[in-house]
Structure formats: structure tokens, C-alpha cells
Design brief:
By secondary structure, this protein is of the alpha/beta class. Helix content is about 45%, strand content about 15%.
Length: about 260
């Protein structure tokens, strides 16, 4: 069964939590789909975890398109959202052109961070053209000056809820909310029709998203709000150590 925006909305209505994870290639896409992840995000985190860049602002459309095509080909049963890389939504015209490229590559929707009115105009243009989109609120990695938790004051929380209502009124497929207090994440999920997918936003949201490499413990450090479900780095390192031992002992059984 192909998961769609209607699938996600139905899951919210029935109270079934939505599992989302990032994916970038054959391995991450196929493993996530086989595990039952309904929604994949081809995130701009590929800049860090795939291409070794220092910031998510350094990745461009060509790299993102390569990842989107691969994920859509290798996990055809999932809903695949494509992250706008930094600058890809600089104007409504640019956003429309790049969104069309993502959809042509197989994406179900595009995800857009909403730090200012410029980005909102781009989202409005996308929805006016009927392009499926996911709104990203709370901590916005592309423009954040710090990694501090967002929406901690009453005024900040109210502003975030208003932004959620605005995105919902545009008919977005979902809202991603990152690194906010649990109560704010839960309030947002209750107040909008669209599914709310949290990352560091508590269990009261309609689903959760984590970076593939974080949840599998593939790097030494993960964000404080990203739980690790296996220490994958240590497992892989041990496998490689045993391989090197096998080579050095000319095929003797590895210990």
C-alpha cells in the first residue's frame, strides 16, 4: 500500500502515531520502509551525514534531487517529503520551480522552513498552485542562531500556535515542529487538522521524526532530544575491525 497524505490524516484521526525518519539512499530508504516507517523525509541533513559538509546551508538542489530520486525508487510504498535546501525557496517563483523538480523526481511533497514572511509567501504560492507541502516550525536549522529550545515563553508559544493555524489554513499535508516544550507540541497537535510530526516536541504530537543516523547511533554524538535505539557506530566498527583482522591473518576465522 502506498502511503499518502490521506493515509497520514486518517492516522491522526484514528489516534495512530505516525513514524517518520530521514532517508537519503538505498540503505536508509529500504531499511526504514521494511521496518514500517510510513513517512520518509529526504532531509537537508544529508549535507552533514552524507556529504560531510559543515552546515545544512551548504547543500544544493542537485544533491537533494539525487537523494530524492534514490529514496523514491527504493521505498516506493512510503510518503516521501523533500526538504527545500537553503535558498531553494528564496522567492515564490524559485520555490515553485524547485518544487516541480522535486515532484518530478517522485516526491510526495516538499518541506519548507518558515522563519519569515518571505518563506510564508513561498508556501502560499506553492499551495495556490496545488503543490503538496509540509510546514516546519519551531527550531529552524537553516537559520537558527542557537540550538536553544523554542517557544518557551507564553508569547513565543502563542506565536507558534498562530503560525500552525496559518499553515493549516493553507492545507498543508503536515506540520513538523522541532525542539519545543512538550505542552506546546501537544497543543499544536490538538489545534490543527493537519498531522503534527514532532522532533524534540514531546509525545503529544501525532508522530515523530528523527534523523536516520541519530536514531541508529551512527555518530558519536546526537542532539539531546534525539534518542538512540541502537549503538550502530560501535557495531559497524566492530565488524570492520574483524574484517581487517581476517585480511591480516589471511582468512583465518575472525575472533
Amino acid at each position: 500500500m502506498k502511503h499518502t497524505a490521506e493515509t497520514l490524516l486518517s492516522m491522526k484521526k484514528s489516534g495512530e502515531p505516525i513514524a517518520m525518519a530521514t532517508a537519503y539512499d538505498l540503505l536508509s530508504a529500504s531499511l526504514a520502509q521494511a521496518a514500517g516507517v510510513e513517512t520518509l523525509l529526504v532531509g537537508d541533513s544529508a549535507a552533514n551525514v552524507v556529504f560531510g559538509l559543515g552546515s545544512t546551508t551548504e547543500i544544493g538542489m542537485e544533491e537533494m534531487l539525487l537523494c530524492v530520486r534514490t529514496v523514491c525508487r527504493c521505498a516506493s510504498g512510503t510518503y516521501v517529503a523533500a526538504d527545500f535546501p537553503f535558498g531553494a525557496d528564496a522567492t515564490p517563483e524559485t520555490a515553485l520551480a524547485n518544487a516541480e523538480r522535486f515532484l518530478a523526481a517522485g516526491a510526495s511533497s516538499v518541506k519548507i522552513e518558515l522563519p519569515d514572511e518571505r518563506a510564508w509567501k513561498a508556501l502560499e504560492a506553492l499551495r495556490a498552485r496545488g503543490i503538496p507541502a509540509i510546514a516546519h516550525l519551531g527550531l529552524l536549522p537553516q537559520t537558527a542562531r542557537s540550538r536553544r529550545q523554542c517557544a518557551r515563553t507564553d508569547a513565543e508559544a502563542e506565536a507558534l500556535l498562530l503560525a500552525g493555524a496559518r499553515a493549516d489554513s493553507l492545507g498543508v499535508d503536515a506540520v513538523v515542529v522541532e525542539h519545543v516544550p512538550d505542552a506546546v507540541g501537544a497543543s499544536l497537535a490538538r489545534s490543527v487538522k493537519a498531522p503534527v510530526i514532532g522532533i524534540g516536541a514531546g509525545s503529544g504530537t501525532d508522530g515523530q521524526v528523527l534523523v536516520f543516523h541519530d536514531l541508529l547511533g551512527l555518530f558519536e554524538k546526537s542532539p539531546p532530544f534525539a534518542p538512540r535505539f541502537v549503538e550502530g557506530r560501535a557495531l559497524l566498527a566492530e565488524g570492520l575491525r574483524r574484517y581487517v583482522e581476517w585480511v591480516k591473518t589471511r582468512g583465518a576465522s575472525p575472533r
